[in-house]
Write a structure and sequence with these properties.
Elements: E1 5-7, H1 8-11, H2 14-17, E2 21-25, E3 31-35, E4 46-51, E5 59-72, E6 75-78, E7 81-84, E8 87-91, E9 96-100, E10 106-111, E11 114-122, E12 128-137, E13 142-154, E14 170-172, E15 175-178, E16 187-191, E17 197-208, H3 210-214, E18 220-233, E19 238-245, H4 254-265, H5 271-281, E20 283-286, E21 289-292, E22 295-296, H6 304-318, H7 322-335, H8 337-341, H9 352-364, H10 368-383, E23 393-395, E24 401-403, E25 416-417, E26 420-421, E27 428-429, H11 430-446, H12 452-472, E28 473-474, E29 479-480, E30 483-485, E31 488-490, H13 498-502, H14 510-523, E32 525-526, E33 529-531, H15 548-555, E34 560-561, H16 564-576, H17 581-593, E35 606-607, E36 615-616, E37 620-621, H18 622-640
Helix pairs in contact: 5-6, 5-18, 6-7, 6-9, 6-18, 9-11, 10-11, 11-12, 16-17, 16-18, 17-18
């Protein structure tokens, strides 16, 4: 597809090409990520990062890069590219003439009469990277030399030359095995053609990650090149290289294995196909336990809030798989008993359980079996907010939830600068209380009438109805307070009030909904998400740039978050029905224009609040991907109606 291709003029322009990243991720939690010219610009970049059991399953980068050199008639051409401070050496990108990301990343090099192509694939069910090299054309035989750059460190860290690294190797079929440090898995590098490994361990020092440098982070490391492989190729020959963690594979099966992986991925024929592919890549299966990865390359797996928010979109609206929905939800509940029922710094996160189940019921069209299975969990969550159950949040006599823990941001707006919460928001938070009311109403809707639970919580529901709107509504500004503490209403215009006007059970009048949406439309809505703060506020930061401090200030004080568009569209469709379809299309179409930016083919975590709304954060976000699938489902539903 056109949006997943790049031409020579784009590729040789490093200012352009280094900002475009590729990502391959699989079910084991392994990933491959680099720029489209295969120059690593982040510490998270590398050809093979895998979860390591000995280190609590956290991802560690084994193979940083694999430099190719071609030698024709005694003349050598190095196709690699690395940054050393302000210098790029070698500059193999100057030979790239084409990049295509469908169905797998494909880079084409042209050097005189030589046309050389490499395609990169990640095995869907094992920690194995496969690279196919094809000598498309050459006037004579060509010697291909491959030099692996080894890291063996956490994806969050950097490494340096040291005396403890094991710089040796163990021969394996058509290759060599490496393990720099104890407790790491063995990395097997094997070729589909017979070859021998020439050992010559050298540390390449001062490799620099330009994106980390720009952000003010530590950005330099030393990588070990243990030696090289050499093979001869003739015009039309192909070679497959396997990099896998664990046991070596049968070298004779590599070509067939590569073709099978690519065929299984299949082509992309629409934007929706791309969304579904990304949705599938964000679901990880570890030891038979399926969980959602919040985002690549650095966000964690199995997070409570992020899973509950993204689960319906990824599994139902994307893959149409209710069985997988329940499997992941069951795993989440089993792993989060404490957070769901007694303690968490994400005070609103457990309440998203109701929203997730509401979407599930709406999708499958019946509720009895769902409530029988998950009703006890839902009721336990609600009961946990009673006084004395949680230290960080509790229901007050007015029925509303007060959340406070000094110095801690207790909601999704949880950025910190030097240990200081950027948006602490202690008190009555508008979204927490909107979710609270919705959860109670959802439970009462399905709980047996006349039960002790129903009698108790019906009374509390009525108390909330009397107090919610008087607590948060401010007629002078025409919107809901973001939170209320002992000093009164805090009237910075933020998107959190969207939950109060978009959930199935709302505790505000239709007039309030209309007024809130009017203000949100005027000041917060962009074509790349909902701003976290109005541009009219003195604290507004419209561009996510600068050092860590400046970026964290913008994170929740102006950046546009795509996942919030789902709540915006729910509110819009509730108000306008099918007449909102055009607006929903308008606020989502721009994401498809951006598929050639940031993460190529991926959907980014956040955007600048100011035009032209450049993407930032994790290059592939579960909540963004889910929101777009959710909105597409709503558009289809209302268009049919």
């Amino acid at each position: 597809m056109a949006f997943l291709k790049f031409n020579k003029s784009e590729l040789v322009n490093l200012e352009y090409s280094l900002k475009r990243e590729i990502l391959l991720a699989n079910k084991t939690g392994a990933f491959c990520s680099t720029s489209i010219v295969t120059c690593n610009t982040r510490r998270y970049h590398g050809l093979l990062a895998v979860p390591v059991e000995k280190f609590d399953g956290f991802r560690h980068l084994l193979l940083s890069s694999l430099d190719e050199s071609l030698t024709l008639r005694g003349k050598r051409f190095n196709l690699g590219i690395h940054c050393y401070g302000d210098i790029y050496e070698p500059r193999g990108h100057k030979y790239i003439v084409d990049f295509d990301a469908d169905p797998v990343p494909c880079v084409t090099y042209k050097i005189g009469e030589i046309v050389f192509r490499k395609r990169i694939a990640l095995s869907p069910d094992s920690d194995q990277l496969l690279i196919q090299y094809e000598l498309v054309n050459a006037p004579a035989k060509v010697k291909l030399e491959l030099k692996p750059f080894l890291a063996f460190r956490s994806v969050h860290g950097l490494t340096g030359e040291n005396a403890t690294a094991n710089t040796g190797f163990t021969p394996v079929q058509n290759g060599a095995a490496f393990c720099l440090y104890e407790n790491f898995p063995v990395l097997n590098l094997q070729l589909s053609a017979a070859t021998s490994f020439k050992a010559n361990p050298v540390w390449y020092k001062g490799i620099t990650y330009s994106d980390e440098m720009r952000r003010g982070f530590d950005c330099r490391e030393d990588l070990l090149v243990p030696g090289s492989f050499e093979v001869e190729l003739h015009s039309g020959d192909t070679l497959v290289v396997s990099a896998n963690a664990g046991e070596p594979v049968k070298a004779g099966t590599l070509k067939r294995r590569f073709n099978t992986v690519v065929e299984k991925i299949g082509p992309i024929t629409s934007f929706h196909d791309q969304l579904v592919r990304q949705a599938d890549s964000l679901i990880r299966e570890d030891g038979g336990v399926k969980r959602i990865v919040a985002g690549y390359s650095w966000l964690y797996t199995g997070l409570l809030r992020e899973t509950l928010v993204s689960l319906p979109g990824l599994t139902l609206y994307g893959k149409h798989d209710p069985k997988e929905f329940e499997e992941i939800l069951d795993n989440l509940i089993a792993a989060n008993q404490e957070r769901l029922s007694s303690r968490t710094t994400q005070v609103e996160a457990p309440l998203f359980m109701a929203v997730t189940l509401q979407q599930y019921i709406a999708y499958i069209g019946h509720s009895k079996a769902v409530w029988e299975k998950y009703g006890p969990v839902m009721k336990a969550i609600i009961e946990s907010y009673l006084p004395g159950r949680r230290q960080e949040v509790a229901m007050q006599p007015n029925g509303l939830l007060w959340a406070q823990k000094d110095g801690v941001a207790l909601t999704w707006m949880n950025a910190y600068i030097n240990g200081r919460a950027v948006t602490e928001r202690a008190g009555y938070q508008v979204e927490t209380n909107a979710l609270w009311y919705n959860a109670i109403c959802f439970a009462l809707e399905h709980e047996k009438k006349g039960s002790a639970f129903a009698r108790k919580w019906t009374t509390i529901k009525e108390i909330i109805e009397q107090n919610f709107e008087p607590m948060f509504w401010n007629a002078d500004v025409g919107f809901l307070a973001d939170y209320v503490d002992n000093s009164g209403q805090h009237l910075e215009l933020r998107p959190n009030q969207l939950w109060a006007v978009s959930l199935d059970h709302r505790c505000v009048s239709d007039e309030t909904v209309n007024e809130v949406m009017r203000v949100v439309n005027a000041e917060l809505v962009t074509r790349r998400g909902i701003r976290t703060l109005s541009p009219r506020d003195i604290r507004y930061k419209g561009v996510y740039e600068g050092n860590q401090h400046q970026r964290d200030e913008a994170y929740m004080n102006g950046c546009a978050w795509p996942f919030l568009l789902a709540q915006y569209c729910y509110a819009g469709f509730n108000m306008m029905g099918a007449n909102f379809v055009k607006k929903a299309e308008y606020v989502t179409e721009g994401f498809y224009e951006d598929l050639s930016k940031h993460g190529v083919g991926c959907f980014s975590e956040l955007y600048d609040g100011d035009p032209p709304h450049e993407p930032h954060g994790a290059i592939s976000s579960a909540m963004t991907t889910s929101a777009l699938l959710n909105i597409n489902w709503l558009i289809s539903k209302y268009r049919e109606d």
